[in-house]
Each structure stands twice: as C-alpha cells, then as structure tokens.
C-alpha cells in the first residue's frame, strides 16, 4: 500500500512545489495539502499553496503563499478545502494560462500538485503541454527574460483525484468518495427507520452525473430495493420490473422500500429517469405511500472519514516523490489506489478514459461504459444484483449443484459481519443453496448438541437477513470459543445437519478455528467440506489479508474519539492526549489512526516502548509547543496500542508527559475501549463485506458435486479471502498457516503497514532515534 518517505530529492536544486485544490471540493483535500506541504519541506524543498484553484494561479500575488510546517497544522480533520477552490474561466483560455505561467516563474515554482476532478486534471495537462510555448511567448512579449525562464524549462505536474463522485478511471477510490458515501448512508439509514415505521417507500436522489459509484455503493451498503445508475440503464421494461421486484419484497414481509437514483440516471434511450417519475410509479402502480428525498450538497460536506484522510495523506506523500523523481520525459502521473496499493498512472490516459465513459454512455454503448470502469465497480454491480432481488429464477442452479451452507461468526463482533451474512444468505437463496446459521459460534454448536436440541442451527430466510445490511454487532451471535473445545461434537452437528460448506466470518479466532477444522479432517469426515474465512476484526490481524472488515469502522470510531479529545483542548490548547487503542499484538489500528489524525507519535507492540523513545517524544513535544504560536487551538495526540508495553500504560505515559511539561503543557490519558467496535458499520466495511461475501460463496459453490476426498486433496478447499496489494484473492489456509502466520503473536508475519509508521513520524516531524550501537 505504502509509499515510503525514503528516497531523497534527486536533483541538487531546491525545488519549489505548488499545491492547489480545484473543481468541486471533496473531504480529504486538506489532508492532501498537508501531506504535500510537509513532505516537500521534509525533502528540503519549499512549499507553496495556490489559493482558490486556478484562479489563484492566474491572479498570482498573495494568492500564492509560501507554506511552513505549522501552516497546515490541524488540516487533516477539516472537511472541504482550507486553501479554497474555484471554477476559473480565465484558465480555460490560453491568455489565462500565460498569466499563470508567468506567476509561477515569478514565484520560482516549477512543479504543481493539483487535487481536483477530471476537469482540473485536464487543465493541468494542457498547461504542461503548452508550457514551452508559454515560456517562449513570455520572453517574446518581454514579460520575462531568457535568463529568468531558463531554470523553469520543465514543468512537473502531478494529479491527485479529489472528487466525491469517484468518477476517475484507473483508480478504485478518489479522495472524498468514501466520506460522501458515509453521508449518503447516514441519510438512507435515517430514512430507513421512518420508512419502516410507516411502511413507506422513499426515492433518494444522490450525486453522480456520469458516474453511478455513489448510487451503486449506497445501494450495496443499505440493501436498497432498486438503483438507477448512468452506466447500466435498466432494461426497456424497467417500470414493470421495478414494481414487480418491490412487490415481491413486500409480499415477503418487507415493510419499507428504498430506491436510489443517481443524478445522471436514464433509460436505454438516454431519457432521464427522474425521482418524480419513480415516485409516480411506486405510488400509482405499486400503491405505496412514496416520498422523495434529494440529498444535494449534504453529500459534499462534513469531516473526512478515516479512509479519505489516509488516502489523501498517502497520495500527497507519493505526489511529492513523483515530482522529485520526474525527468523531462516522464509523463505527468496521477496518483491512484488499486485495492490497497498506491500506484502512479499516466494522467492523460486516466482523464481520456474517464471522458470515454461519458462518450460511450452518450453513444448508448453501455457495455463499453462498464468496460471502462474498474473491475471493482463491475464486481460491486454483480454483487448488488445477486444479493438484492428476491426472485431471480434464471440464477438458480440445478438441484445437484445446490448445497447446504453453514454460516458461523467467530470472535468479537466487527462492523460488517451482518452485511456479509446478509449477502451470503441472499446469494444462497438466489442460487438455490440452503443458508444455515450456526448460532453463537462453536460453543453454540457444542452446547446445542448437548442441551439445546432446538435453535442453535437454523435455516435463515430472506426476510430474516434482509435488514442486516447496516446493522452492527452479530445477529447470529458470535463467540471466541474454538472447535477444539469439542471437535467430536462439532463434527456430529455438521453431520446431523448435513453441512456441505462452511462460511466463517471473524478474526484471528476464526482463522484458528478453520485451521483446526482443516487439520481435523484427518479424523472427521464431516470437515472434508469447502471452508472460507472472511476476515472480520477491528484489529486487522488476520493472516492472508491486508484488510479485515470491521477495521474501517473501528478507525472511524477512533478518529471521532481523537477529534473530540483534541477539540476539548481548544480552550487550554497546551494539552497532550495519550490514547490507548485496541488491536491486540498488531499495531495496525494505532498506526492507521495515527496517520488519519496526524498523531504526534504512535506506539505499537511491534516496536515496544522504551525510555529513549519516551524521552525523544517528550523533547519533541516541548519543541512543538514552543513553535505553536496558536495557529491551531487543539490538543496533540499520542496513540498507544494496548499491548505496546507491559510497563508503560497510557496513564504512566500521560503522567510522565505532564511531569516533564510542568507549566508549559499538560497531559490526559483516554481509553476508548469497546467504543472502537463502533455502532453502525462504515460503508467501506459494508460494501466490502458484500463483495467478499459473494466471492466467498462463489468459491464454496465451485466445490458442489465433488467427493469428500477430492475436497480434502484440494488446498483451495480451506481458504481465507483477502486483499493483498492490488489484488483480491483466496489464499490456501495450509500455506498461510505455515508461512505467513505468527501464531504466538496472533498476527501476520509480514505486516504490510509497517512502512506507514515512518510516514506518520515524518508528517508529525517526530525526530528519528539514533541507530542502536
Ligand atoms: P468536479 O469533478 O468536482 O467537477 P473538476 O476538476 O472536474 O471537478 P471542473 O469545473 O471541470 O471541475 O474544472 C475545474 C477547473 O479546471 C475549471 O474551472 C478550469 O479552470 C480548469 N479546467 C477544466 N477543464 C479545463 C480545460 N479543458 N482546459 C483548461 N482548464 C480547464
């Protein structure tokens, strides 16, 4: 995932790098500005903010300001853009760009990092293409001398995509899209409760003129009954179709109806599908009491979610590196995210491909429009379809391919467990499988056999699971207990209920449980069935994946807690909060939360805590408070993982800081504890739960009809699904157990996020400890 802070600037020249935000604002843009400014300074270069987008570049003067380290303090948690944005007509004309070029040279800036949508990036690329001509013209006009322009022959442009629509091709996520999705989901969840009370239907319009990402993801996250997106218009008879599906859901007992319409939705003839039209159909044909809610600009606003803060930060870091590594021949890059990996892509191609989507839609070539979107988008669309409509006879498998699939939760609850289960149930029912809930984990099964003859093993109906999309906790009950408590009984229960495949949702215990069942195959035939684990734990410590569902919900809860602590210090200002995070033996949560809130220091179990570190950090705090002239009236945060040290608890660290800071600063400690499990799961956890849930079930299904021995022989019959770098894949348990697992410390041997710690430190200005002798 991680860009590192390692390589130094390549040229000897002290570069001056400008950063701007342009086009529509998006939550997270400030985090990008902070990262660009601080990384620029870290590399010994000079940073400039260009205020009000291209307008500032064209006007010059005070609109282009040199930025110091302290100028971006507190930026990470602010929504919108603090350096302003604008739509600038002058920059669309060559004369405006000529003026912009002159202003840049006058300020000595030869590289620009632009955070904006495809329009802003198009403008940027045009600017770079014209740059030599603009310089020539400036000299010919007598505006600047030959000597003055000589050092500025090459303009470096790097794009960061800041856009709530997530409309740029070649990246899975743009800065702001998950915050916007969070706003939408909050709204839909709120509408949901009133819709259920009154048995109403709601038609909700969300943003997205050429891109249905927000509408699709909102549909997946909330379990909406029907969605309309521009890339895939509904079939010609959609009016009937929609009413039929919704009626079917009502007949099955659903009390509410949610339809999500993207702003740019249309039918196959490009006739706009308006919320009003959908409402009329639902009212008149389906006879539902229907209301329209248009979310509008609410979707743009608010504080950025954890993911956007992290994405913006990592992309900002990578952007500065890209500037410093560029040669005159390097095409301008745009910084993208593929699954969990930051990558550079050619800016021009990404913009061209994005524009092509709109062209394809216009030409009614919807297959091509979809082809031009990322693979992830397509998977989400398929997952939405298969997990939504209750009646899809065309998807049914022949009877011999249908399976009885056990679903079990293991370990502590994590956001998204229910969404994954709902998706699995809906998938099973769509394909003709029987979804069977194994309640309260393995101890539930073991007890069930001895003294609870009814209840712990039950088929789940469509209606049971239908409302679970947005629910936190575990609806089927979860337990940390392992099958090894009584493997014999577990096998008897599997046998008795003819469990032919197992879908396990949970954390390290789930991983351990499947490992035990896999090894138990030697003695128990009942375990010779396909098994898949969907990692779900706030600690994100399951081997075989870089991401567990629930971890994003946890990070959001944690940054909310930290933001509140910080704000509480705005009266006294000189306060340090030492906050304990969960995460077991893995410092992931502490580190990523640290990245997302701009923590001053993060202590992890991987590094431990010693006196030298504390001493260094206390010295650093002294310096920070000396430098802080009141630009940012908020407290500072230090995050400490619960297992980072047996000696130095958050209370002790806070006391040490308070003692050292006497009269200059004070300190408090905080333990958010179970608050970190969050309440409502974050949209990212929900959508990934659905996508991975569906993929897991497809994997289990691929074993239908195979003999137990064939299954036993196939290493892929016990797998963990996960994200590794830019890929989502299944990893065979046997290999992951042996090669990738640190059993003692209950975490993966290689933790992908370790390099991110350096970025947290760099961006907070934390000094490095001298190397050990
Ligand atoms: P959003 O996704 O929110 O619409 P955007 O970056 O696409 O963001 P635009 O309004 O299209 O927003 O572009 C922002 C600014 O970028 C414009 O006001 C203009 O100054 C500049 N710009 C856009 N397109 C071009 C172009 N083709 N040539 C030069 N400048 C452009």
Automatic annotation (TrEMBL):
Documented EC number(s): 2.7.1.11
Gene Ontology, cellular component aspect: 6-phosphofructokinase complex; mitochondrial outer membrane
Compositionally biased residues, Pro residues: 1-10
Protein name: ATP-dependent 6-phosphofructokinase
Residues that, per the record, bind substrate: 163-165, 200, 207-209, 263, 291, 297-300
Gene3D superfamilies: 3.40.50.450, Phosphofructokinase domain
Subcellular location: Cytoplasm; Mitochondrion outer membrane
Any GO MF annotation of the entry: fructose-6-phosphate binding
Regulation of activity: Allosterically activated by ADP, AMP, or fructose 2,6-bisphosphate, and allosterically inhibited by ATP or citrate.
Family annotation (PROSITE patterns): PHOSPHOFRUCTOKINASE
InterPro entries per UniProt: 6-Pfructokinase_euk, ATP_PFK, Phosphofructokinase_CS, Phosphofructokinase_dom, PKF_sf
Domain Phosphofructokinase: 16-323, 404-699
Chief localization: cytoplasm
Annotated keywords: Allosteric enzyme, ATP-binding, Cytoplasm, Glycolysis, Kinase, Magnesium, Metal-binding, Nucleotide-binding, Transferase
Location of region: Disordered: 1-21
Annotated binding of Mg(2+), by residue: 118
Obligatory cofactor(s): Mg(2+)
Source taxon at top rank: Eukaryota
Pfam families: PFK (PF00365)
């Amino acid at each position: 995932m991680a860009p590192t802070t390692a390589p130094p600037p390549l040229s000897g020249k002290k570069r001056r790098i400008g950063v701007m935000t342009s086009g529509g604002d998006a939550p997270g843009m400030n985090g990008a500005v902070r990262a660009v400014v601080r990384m620029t300074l870290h590399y010994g270069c000079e940073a400039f903010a260009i205020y009000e987008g291209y307008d500032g570049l064209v006007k010059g003067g005070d609109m282009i300001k040199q930025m110091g380290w302290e100028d971006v303090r507190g930026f990470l948690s602010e929504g919108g853009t603090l350096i302003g944005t604008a739509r600038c007509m002058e920059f669309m004309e060559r004369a405006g760009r000529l003026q912009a070029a002159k202003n840049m040279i006058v300020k000595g800036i030869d590289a620009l990092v632009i955070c904006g949508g495809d329009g802003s990036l198009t403008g940027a690329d045009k600017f770079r293409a014209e740059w030599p001509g603009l310089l020539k013209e400036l000299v010919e006009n007598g505006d600047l001398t030959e000597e003055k322009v000589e050092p500025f022959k090459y303009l470096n442009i790097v794009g960061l995509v800041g856009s709530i629509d997530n409309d740029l091709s070649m990246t899975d996520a743009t800065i702001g899209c998950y915050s916007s999705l969070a706003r939408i989901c909050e709204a839909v969840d709120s509408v949901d409760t009133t819709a259920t009370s009154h048995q109403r239907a709601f038609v909700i319009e969300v943003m997205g003129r050429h891109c249905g990402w927000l509408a699709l993801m909102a549909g997946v996250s909330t379990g909406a009954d029907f969605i309309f997106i521009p890339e895939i218009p509904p079939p010609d008879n959609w009016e009937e179709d929609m009413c039929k599906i919704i009626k079917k859901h009502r007949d099955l007992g659903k009390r509410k109806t949610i339809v999500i319409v993207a702003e740019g939705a249309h039918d196959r003839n490009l006739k706009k599908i308006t919320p009003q039209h959908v409402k009329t159909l639902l009212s008149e044909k389906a006879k539902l009491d229907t209301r329209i809610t248009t979310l509008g600009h609410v979707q743009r606003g608010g504080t950025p979610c954890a993911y956007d803060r992290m994405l913006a930060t990592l992309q900002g870091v990578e952007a500065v590196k890209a500037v410093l590594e560029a040669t005159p021949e390097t095409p301008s890059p745009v910084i993208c995210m593929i699954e969990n990996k930051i990558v550079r892509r050619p800016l021009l191609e990404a913009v061209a491909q994005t524009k092509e989507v709109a062209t394809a839609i216009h030409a009614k070539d919807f297959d091509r429009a979809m082809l031009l979107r990322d693979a992830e988008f397509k998977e989400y669309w398929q997952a939405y379809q298969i997990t939504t409509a209750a009646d899809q006879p065309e998807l049914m498998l022949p009877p011999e391919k249908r399976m009885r699939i056990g679903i079990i939760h293991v370990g502590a609850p994590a956001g998204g467990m229910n969404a994954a289960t709902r998706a699995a149930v809906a998938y099973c029912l769509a394909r003709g499988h029987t979804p069977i809930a194994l309640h309260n984990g393995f101890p539930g099964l073991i007890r069930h056999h001895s003294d609870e003859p009814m209840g712990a093993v039950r088929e789940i109906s469509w209606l049971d699971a239908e409302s679970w999309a947005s629910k936190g906790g575990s609806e089927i009950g979860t337990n940390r207990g392992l099958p090894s408590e009584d493997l014999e009984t577990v096998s008897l229960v599997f046998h008795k209920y003819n469990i032919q495949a197992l879908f396990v949702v949970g954390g390290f215990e789930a991983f351990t449980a499947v490992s035990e069942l896999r090894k138990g195959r030697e003695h128990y035939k009942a375990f010779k069935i396909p098994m898949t684990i969907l990692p779900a734990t706030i600690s994100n410590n399951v081997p075989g994946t870089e991401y567990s569902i629930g971890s994003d919900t946890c990070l959001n809860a944690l940054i909310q807690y930290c933001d509140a602590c910080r704000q509480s210090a705005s009266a006294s200002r000189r306060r340090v909060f030492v906050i304990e995070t969960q995460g077991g033996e893995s410092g992931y949560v502490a580190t990523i939360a640290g990245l997302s809130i701009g923590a001053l220091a993060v202590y992890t179990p991987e590094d431990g805590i010693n006196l030298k570190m504390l001493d260094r950090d206390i010295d650093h705090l002294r310096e920070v408070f000396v430098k802080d002239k009141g630009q940012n009236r908020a407290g500072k945060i230090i995050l400490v993982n619960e297992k980072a040290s047996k000696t130095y608890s958050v209370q002790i660290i806070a006391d040490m800081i308070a003692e050292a800071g006497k009269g200059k600063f004070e300190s408090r400690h905080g333990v958010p504890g179970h608050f970190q499990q969050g309440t409502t799961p974050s949209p990212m956890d929900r959508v990934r739960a659905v996508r991975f849930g569906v993929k897991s079930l497809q994997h289990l299904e691929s074993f239908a009809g195979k003999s137990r021995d064939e299954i036993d022989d196939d290493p892929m019959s016990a797998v963990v699904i996960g994200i590794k770098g830019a890929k989502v894949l299944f990893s065979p348990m046997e290999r992951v157990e042996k090669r990738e697992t640190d059993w003692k410390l209950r975490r993966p041997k290689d933790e992908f996020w370790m390099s991110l710690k350096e970025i947290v430190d760099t961006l907070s200005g934390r000094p490095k400890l001298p190397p050990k002798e």
